[in-house]
Specification:
This protein is mainly alpha-helical and 147 residues long. It has one domain. Helix 2 packs antiparallel against helix 3 and helix 4 packs antiparallel against helix 5. The longest helix is centred in the middle third of the chain and has 15 residues. The radius of gyration is 15 Å and the shape is globular. The model has no long low-confidence stretch (mean pLDDT 83). Keywords: Membrane, Transmembrane, Transmembrane helix. It is found in: Endomembrane system. It is a multi-pass membrane protein. Pfam families: DUF1232.
Length: 147
């Protein structure tokens, strides 16, 4: 299945974001937009947490068994999610988030094998390590891992 239209632009933005050491800031922005558990994104909260956990584990060097293409797609989807002016502006009541949810669903479906492998790895970690994955990296500009 082909990528959602306009998504290619976000794929192009994902690489410099990773190389520039700005992934922690993106993860913080995703958390802020998603809000508290049970909020307006309760239906996709588990997916967002999985994508954030993958990025956090990759950033910390704990999980590197993800392809570059999958990581770029995940980061691009999170960028799309936090961008208010995308295909359908987020401020439009009732429909503004539909395109964001469609992009997240596309990434979850397209990269389901890689995400399942990460989920299995995460679930095999001790409880303290799983809890640490839910803590976002400090949102400051630092030297990024090699990408």
């Amino acid at each position: 299945m082909s990528a959602p239209w306009n998504f290619v632009r976000y794929l192009a933005l994902a690489r410099p974001l990773l190389r520039g050491g700005r992934l922690p800031a993106l993860l913080l922005a995703v958390s802020r937009k998603a809000g508290p558990p049970g909020g307006r994104f309760k239906g996709v909260m588990a997916d967002l947490k999985l994508l954030q956990g993958l990025c956090t584990a990759w950033w910390r060097g704990e999980y590197r068994a993800v392809s570059r293409q999958a990581l770029l797609a995940v980061v691009a989807a999170l960028l799309y999610f936090v961008t208010p002016l995308d295909a359908i502006p987020d401020w439009l009541p009732g429909i503004g988030m539909l395109d964001d949810l469609a992009v997240l669903a596309w990434v979850m479906r397209t990269w389901q094998g890689e995400l399942a492998a990460f989920r299995a790895w995460r679930d095999a970690q001790p409880v303290q390590a799983q809890t640490a994955l839910e803590r976002l990296p400090v949102a400051e500009r630092v030297d990024p891992p090699a990408f």
